[in-house]
Amino acid sequence: MRKAVAAVMPAPDQPVELREYPLPELADGEALLRVDYSEVCGTDVHLHRGRLAGVPYPLIPGHVTAGTLAAVRGDLRDVYGVPLREGDVVTFLDVHRTCHQCWYCLVAKASTRCPSRKVYGITYGAADGLCGGWASHVHLLAGTRVIRLENATPRDFLLGGCSLPTGLHALDRAQVQIGESVLVLGIGPVGLSCIALARAAGAALVLAIGGPANRVAAASAMGADAVLDLTVMSADQRAEWVRERTGGRGADVVIEATGVPDAVVQAMRCARDAGRVVVVGQYTDHGEVAFNPHLDLNKKHLDVRGCWGSDYSHFHRAVQVAGHERLGAPWRSLPVREFRLADAGQALAAVANGEVVKALLRP
Amino acid sequence: MRKAVAAVMPAPDQPVELREYPLPELADGEALLRVDYSEVCGTDVHLHRGRLAGVPYPLIPGHVTAGTLAAVRGDLRDVYGVPLREGDVVTFLDVHRTCHQCWYCLVAKASTRCPSRKVYGITYGAADGLCGGWASHVHLLAGTRVIRLENATPRDFLLGGCSLPTGLHALDRAQVQIGESVLVLGIGPVGLSCIALARAAGAALVLAIGGPANRVAAASAMGADAVLDLTVMSADQRAEWVRERTGGRGADVVIEATGVPDAVVQAMRCARDAGRVVVVGQYTDHGEVAFNPHLDLNKKHLDVRGCWGSDYSHFHRAVQVAGHERLGAPWRSLPVREFRLADAGQALAAVANGEVVKALLRP
Amino acid sequence: MRKAVAAVMPAPDQPVELREYPLPELADGEALLRVDYSEVCGTDVHLHRGRLAGVPYPLIPGHVTAGTLAAVRGDLRDVYGVPLREGDVVTFLDVHRTCHQCWYCLVAKASTRCPSRKVYGITYGAADGLCGGWASHVHLLAGTRVIRLENATPRDFLLGGCSLPTGLHALDRAQVQIGESVLVLGIGPVGLSCIALARAAGAALVLAIGGPANRVAAASAMGADAVLDLTVMSADQRAEWVRERTGGRGADVVIEATGVPDAVVQAMRCARDAGRVVVVGQYTDHGEVAFNPHLDLNKKHLDVRGCWGSDYSHFHRAVQVAGHERLGAPWRSLPVREFRLADAGQALAAVANGEVVKALLRP
Amino acid sequence: MRKAVAAVMPAPDQPVELREYPLPELADGEALLRVDYSEVCGTDVHLHRGRLAGVPYPLIPGHVTAGTLAAVRGDLRDVYGVPLREGDVVTFLDVHRTCHQCWYCLVAKASTRCPSRKVYGITYGAADGLCGGWASHVHLLAGTRVIRLENATPRDFLLGGCSLPTGLHALDRAQVQIGESVLVLGIGPVGLSCIALARAAGAALVLAIGGPANRVAAASAMGADAVLDLTVMSADQRAEWVRERTGGRGADVVIEATGVPDAVVQAMRCARDAGRVVVVGQYTDHGEVAFNPHLDLNKKHLDVRGCWGSDYSHFHRAVQVAGHERLGAPWRSLPVREFRLADAGQALAAVANGEVVKALLRP
If you measure CA to CA, which chain A residue comes closest to C79? Predict the structure, then answer.
């Protein structure tokens, strides 16, 4: 019988290693995905460092993943009601088991806060089966939302990867009007996607602050009108740099996509009065930061909006955007480095130190 | 010639003193108000301590004020186009000179952040004339928005006073749905108004936390379903008290109306995931406070909304609410102490130490 | 073996008749409800006349229903995750099988337009089993959302019945601000609920237009500040009646709850410029009506909002409201007539001719 | 003394004629604009046919206009507070005298419905002075909002002209999300601008229906992904054409920009369930049209939004968009025909019969 191979994080701070697993028996409504591409993202770096709560190591990382259906058992359909079949090129929503039965799902309509929510490659561990994308195969459990990649290759889609639905959710929260100015703090994959999406949403001016140099170049390529290297100025000088480009007022919208607590306060200080701040970068606990509620929030009449996870609607539109000739173009220009599964550890290191803009894994 | 008398703050931390002023010559579109009632609010305490920036002492405090038109010069009309006349019982929007010409007024539509904005009794000083309500008369400058008190006496209206438009603005920002739970932090006049307004907006459960004891009783009278004395529990215990009453989740909406920076973080921690926090209490700079952007904001998918000042729409509806038999009833039950102008200093002290719930000034 | 008894509509325009059915075998996750109360609503009148498309006669009508769990098989939980047990007094969301898998459910987040949606007592027929409330028992199929009536009796809850979630949905769409004026067209159960809910949401003025006389009295009792008998004036005079009470402008919000096409145009004409119209009464096809897009819509800068069905969030809050001492009080004052199952035909007639305000069925 | 020359509509259906007027004396805060470009738009055709109410003929048409300040008297500043000076190249908001004092301006915040609102070239007649753009000079009355054309020539700005702020207002109302489909009905200047702006706002698919052939070509050039000639299919076939391109559902957003009442109903029928319809084309009264409130509105859970006029915020952003390298590009590709003042009548005829896409007037 054939085996699957996966790159596994045995425990926090342990080297990633290749392991073999038997291919799963499929239950009704399940499928087996042969992975074409997965990715290495900032969350994977945090997973490797043990910074997320509730992760069941050993873990097969890799949440957003695309490939080809190797087997389908029973009735599995996409949102259009069209049956999915062997050979279809697909991706799937990494979020699984939001229950659609609890108060958060049904009354608050905030499924990203559903207590039953599980995420492939993050809160499903190797003990749950082949539930991560750093593998030759992924076991698509019943209820997984699968979607065809009609106009994008798996590689095209992974160029955006998890940053694309995350960025779309952030832009939904930002409510950009045509002609506004948007500042993006952080130019990792999420920040880069937010740059391209802010532009797609009609921003007349997209500013970005981050580093290192290779990402600064990528930020320009994604459509930022001006990019400031984070390291060359103090926080106050950076805020001044923003004000100089926004009529002295600050940006209409600031999207924080850094992971650094201090950036949330910077975001508030770089936003204009009565503007909007979307916080999409604080996915792990890096501790506290001090702010001034009078000067930074109330007197500014600011809207500060947390943005946690994404749901199927964001994922669906991410697939649309990736496959769209015009809207998807920025991601296709991203500098990418591809790694084999056996080199997943190197990929992690390259993402951690920022030496690659985007790292893809190819089994 | 007759004189006006006013209670004046000569400078921060100086005793309030009575002074005489000549009655003003009215220019076209101006009016003279004979004051029936003004109030002493928390902002006046801050003014007395010199905690607000840009205040031109000596100052005649008293921003929200009601009385009788003693004289009108030229064409002065209300929003319905009806001319205002001598003898009309009126109040006026304390905010003046929002320019309706600048980027904030016209493009951002955020008139409370208009740089030209002036406030009677706060940023107009005695040098500007009789521009505060702690006086026998107020000089209503051209462009002041004056409104008749059709169904409320001046005293009725001042029972809400400045807390009523402020509270209405906070409730607009809160977007309460029928059946939701609302927690109000702080039970000074603004908090008390927010309690009554949250109930008016359809909240099924209104919780409040604050002190001292006389205000706890007032909070219940205003419609809070449960009130917790701030002093009897730790912050963590208070958050637990809220969760016990909200299905373990926290309140759908938290309105911060305390003035204490720490309360903003408490507000975030007492809100349910994907809930809303309105910050309406941070009117002066009391320094910084630390929060955890991951746990308190992003992971909670929270909306945190600053709420600065109020505009004519809030003021107009405040007059409507105060004069409304059903909606205005809570304020008419508030325990009030009246002071004469000569006792304004005592009134300030009584507000500062919380010994009165609401202090009115009557010339 | 015990039998269930149900009042059945054999076909459109046929007399309702009692029929016996075997009690169902329960599958896993299913339950059997012993009905305490169901209701006869306007939709039932339309069903009896064959005016709804896609109804599988013979039909056991009765969509919103409450009672006692006679049997539960397997794991059935409420939204709080608490298991439901025999003897629990409950109601259930009449909407079933919104799939949470299709484009409307997942991308548009408009579950009331899910093509798979089924409604107990309307699109489930007798051939589907005991799936209507005009019966001694209802078969609660797997996936049915069941909720305990903690603070309301079944009778209390049915006083609002289907009009309560419908009205809550309409009020969500209406976005009433404290102090606004709301006009409700139609004073059947949905209109009556909208009156009470508009008041609960903070309206300072609630106007209503409808008939006949017994409902006019009920509209006042539910909280309308003024009620106009539909029959005593022309449409133009009615619009004038509204303007006289709203400063000449029309109502800030108009909620159409009549079922008559012409009322939709009336609603637009009775709304103030830049106001909101919610259309919640057009549940069956009564043909076309003419309007003037320039005068009635574009020049008025109006928002006209269709409001179709309701989802679990509305139903959940309906249960909360019904069981709430203050918010639920209006419905407890409604004049109600109770009918036995055998008299369901009489109940239908009494609802059809408006001789009862609210008709309950009690097995 | 120098004279101004203007093209005047003496009365409805009378030939346009050139007339001379003395140059005005400027009062404080006023300016004289030497016109570089004005335009002939659909409203001008309606004005010529006498289809608008309240127009004080004889009329100097031309509402949106750009040129050079020939004289400035006293203190005239832009929204940034920068004084305007002779020689500045500017445009101005054609809407004047929204009072910022009435209930609509101050409470409803709906300045486009202010009863005092006047529009240059439409509700200011020749008797009011040089208050239309079909002239060598325009008299900019005190209170007129003037804005510099920093990055656009007067000709560039007039390529969008009045359709640009109108379209921006429509897109604000439409709330397009990245990836949505937008159908534009009508491909005159407003429709063409809506096409380009829908694309700018992130639509993944922009469809358009209209005519004649020269405009069909322009619609493609402005960014429509597919354009249907209105004349080749029936209304039902056109709706089918839309559904075929939108997964069988209809468009997420439909923007009606035709002026034909029937198109409003078409718009509702071409929108998907739970979608949005913006009505921006019904600027004159062309009578009634029949629709089905059940099928077209309520059952579809549709939002139908009137969109009347525009305010300074839309105008300000229009200037930004026109002068923006990327966002303004579509308009710079529009086929334009320029006319001299003496040929204004020919320009009107060419606009009326659709033989030009865009007609500019150049004194």
Answer: A102
3-state secondary structure string across B300-348: CCCEEEECCCCCHHHHHHHHHHHCCCCCCHHHHCCCEEEEEHHHHHHHH
- pLDDT range class, residue A329, cuts 50, 70, 90: very high
Residues with Cβ within 8 Å of C58's Cβ and at least 6 positions away in sequence, in order, are C8, C9, C10, C11, C125, C126, C127
Residue D66, beta-bridge partner list: D37, D91
**Contacts for D137 with CB less than 8 Å, ≥ 6 apart:** D4, D23, D32, D33, D34, D35, D70, D130
Across the interface, whether the CB atoms of B178 and C247 are under 8 A apart is answered no
Question: Is residue A1 scored above 80 in pLDDT?
Answer: no
Taking the C-alpha atoms of residue A347 and residue A349, their distance in angstroms, rounded to an integer, is 5
Interface residue C54 vs chain A (CB under 8 A): no
pLDDT tens, C311-355?
Answer: 999 999 999 999 999 999 999 999 999 999 999 999 999 999 989
Enumerate the residues of chain B whose CB falls inside 8 A of the CB of residue A289.
Answer: 290-293
Nearest of A103, D275, D301 to residue C315 by alpha carbon = A103
Q: Which two tokens stand for residue A69?
A: 């259906």
- Angle at CA of residue A87, ends A81 and A88, nearest 5°: 40
CB < 8 Å to D145, chain B: 101, 106
Mean pLDDT of chain A: 96
D102 contact B CB<8A: yes
Please indicate whether, in this complex, the C-beta atoms of A109 and C109 are within 8 angstroms of each other: yes
Q: Which residues of A75-85 are buried (b: 16+ CB within 10 A; e: fewer)?
A: ebebbeeeebe
Q: Alpha-carbon distance D106 to D100, whole Å?
A: 6
pLDDT of residue D2: 83
**Which pLDDT score, from 0 to 100, does residue B253 have?**
98
Whole-structure pTM value:
0.97
pLDDT tens column, D115-124: 999 999 999 9
> Residue D91 has what pLDDT?
98
Judged by CB atoms closer than 8 Å, whether chains meet at C77 and A316 is answered as no
b/e code C153-174 from CB counts within 10 Å (16+ = b): ebebbbbbbbbbbbbbbbbbbb
* Whether the bond into B261 is cis, omega within 30 of 0: no
Q: Is the Cβ of C103 closer than 8 Å to some Cβ of chain A? A: yes
Question: pLDDT for B64-81, tens place per residue?
Answer: 999 999 999 999 999 999
> What chains are in contact with A, requiring at least 3 Cβ pairs below 8 Å?
B, C, D
- CA dist., res. C102 & res. D202, Å (int): 23
D132/D120 Cα distance (integer angstroms): 5
CA-based torsion, D101, D107, D109, D111: positive or negative: negative
A103 reaches C (C-beta below 8 A): yes
Q: What SS3 class is residue C147?
A: strand
**Residues β-bridged to residue B207:** B183, B226
Beta bridge partners of B140: B31
